[in-house]
């Protein structure tokens, strides 16, 4: 009987182009209007919940449309017809842009006249969450790569994300931040690049080293003081740090091969143990007097790698 009624309504609508069809109302305003009891979207149950439903033959998933009964919002929910299980809702899955606040979207999602707000459920006492891999946290915006292919791969380690403002007419008017994951290109591998006026100003590389342009001064970065009590070999992570030796007897600090060019650190003999600076195989230690030992307690020594495993040590040294 319902099918017959629907067919009759369809025939009437086709026959009278100016007619309106109403369900639940005798005074429809639009070509097709459904009027029923308002309701918020339900999480369970099987009773009517919404104003309109799209469903398929032998399909358990449906698309419900409704008007809230507790507020002034309208809703769309893709879900199981018995509720309780929610499904994905796709907008333009084959392509095209989506606009909010604009009728002329120029990007996959174009928001005009508003911002984006993410409520992650954190309180002011919530600890920093652990890093995620294939899943994305409610507090996270992530550029996802393709794992060497062209299809989205959420579990891949690559990915790129750029946050930019301005530059619609010229890149010289744009500021941006590039964030990249794993890459086979060293220039793109795990780094963060900061630009102003379209020019790179700072770069944080995958080892934690921060570099800036030659025209800028980086300030506000304090050196970490790393205490030691025995012989050690320096590492790239000691760059720009202070090594404080508290040893009471003589120790050796070995300078390894392969440190990045520009590597530098300061060594303080805070204890009574003298420090000998020794180069690993292939490392050439340079001092204008040929010295390679700290002169005594409270002596300061600077280490600078100038490239090709040539390392200059300078300061309060002796033999």
Rg (C-alpha, Å): 33 Å
Task: Write down the overall mean pLDDT.
Answer: 91
Series of H and E elements: HEEEEEEEEEEEEEEEEEEEEEEE
Number of alpha- plus pi-helical segments: 1
Quaternary state of this entry equals: single chain
Total strands: 23
Biggest sheet architecture: 6 strands, mixed
First-last Cα distance:
106 Å
Helix proportion of residues, in percent?
under 10%
**Could you give the order of strands across the largest sheet?**
13-15-17-21-22-19
What shape does the CA trace take?
elongated
Structural class: mainly beta
Q: What is the CATH topology of the domain at 225-318?
A: Jelly Rolls
CATH-derived architecture of the domain at 225-318: Sandwich
Task: Bin the strand percentage.
Answer: 25-35%
CATH classification, class level of the domain at 225-318: Mainly Beta
Low-confidence stretches: none
Protein architecture, described:
The chain has one helix spanning 2-15; strands at residues 21-23, 32-34, 52-55, 61-67, 74-80, 98-100, 109-111, 160-166, 174-180, 191-196, 199-204, 210-212, 225-228, 232-233, 242-245, 251-255, 264-269, 275-279, 284-286, 293-294, 299-307, 310-315, 317-318. It is mostly beta strands. The mean pLDDT is 91.
Summarize the structure.
Helices cover 4% and strands 34% of the residues. It has 319 residues and is mainly beta. Among the domains are: 2-80, no CATH class; 174-217; 225-318, Jelly Rolls (Sandwich), CATH 2.60.120.
């Amino acid at each position: 009987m319902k099918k017959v009624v629907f067919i009759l309504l369809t025939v009437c609508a086709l026959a009278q182009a100016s007619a309106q069809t109403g369900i639940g109302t005798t005074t429809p305003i639009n070509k097709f209007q459904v009027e029923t009891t308002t309701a918020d979207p339900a999480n369970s149950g099987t009773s009517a919940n919404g104003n309109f439903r799209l469903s398929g033959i032998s399909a358990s998933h449906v698309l419900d449309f409704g008007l809230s009964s507790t507020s002034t919002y309208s809703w769309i929910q893709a879900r199981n017809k018995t509720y309780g299980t929610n499904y994905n809702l796709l907008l333009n899955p084959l392509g095209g842009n989506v606009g909010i606040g604009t009728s002329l979207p120029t990007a996959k999602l174009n928001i005009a006249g508003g911002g984006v707000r993410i409520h992650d459920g954190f309180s002011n006492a919530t600890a920093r969450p652990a890093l995620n891999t294939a899943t994305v946290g409610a507090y996270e915006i992530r550029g996802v790569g393709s794992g060497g292919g062209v299809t989205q791969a959420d579990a891949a380690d690559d990915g790129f994300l750029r946050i930019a403002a301005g530059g619609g007419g010229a890149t010289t008017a744009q500021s941006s931040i590039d964030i990249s994951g794993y890459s086979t290109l060293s220039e793109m591998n795990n780094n963060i690049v900061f630009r102003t006026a379209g020019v790179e100003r700072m770069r944080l590389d995958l080892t934690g080293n921060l570099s800036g342009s030659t025209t800028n001064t980086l300030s506000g970065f304090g050196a970490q003081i790393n205490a030691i009590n025995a012989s050690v070999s320096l590492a790239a992570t000691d760059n720009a740090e202070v090594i404080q030796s508290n040893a009471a007897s003589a120790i050796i600090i070995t300078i390894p091969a392969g440190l990045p060019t520009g590597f530098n650190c300061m060594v303080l003999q805070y204890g009574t143990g003298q420090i000998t600076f020794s180069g690993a195989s292939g490392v050439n230690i340079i001092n204008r007097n040929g010295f390679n030992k700290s002169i005594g307690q409270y002596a300061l020594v600077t280490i600078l790698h100038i490239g090709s495993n040539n390392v200059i040590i300078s300061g309060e040294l002796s033999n």
